[in-house]
Amino acid sequence: MKFFKNKLAVTVIVLSVTFLVIIGYTSKKQGKDKVSSAVGVTLNPVQKVFYSINDNVKGFLNFIFNFSDVKSENTELKKKNSELSSKSIEYDSLKNENQRLREMLDFKSQRDEYNYIGANIINKAGGSILESFTIDKGLKHGVKVGMVAIDPKGLVGQVTDVTNSWSTIQPITSENVAVGALVESTRDTTGVVKGYRDNNKAVARLEYIDANSEIKEGDVILTSASGDSYPKEIKIGVVLSIKEDKAKMGKTAIIEPYVDFNKLEELYLVVPTSNENNNIKY
Question: pTM to 2 decimals?
Answer without folding.
Answer: 0.62
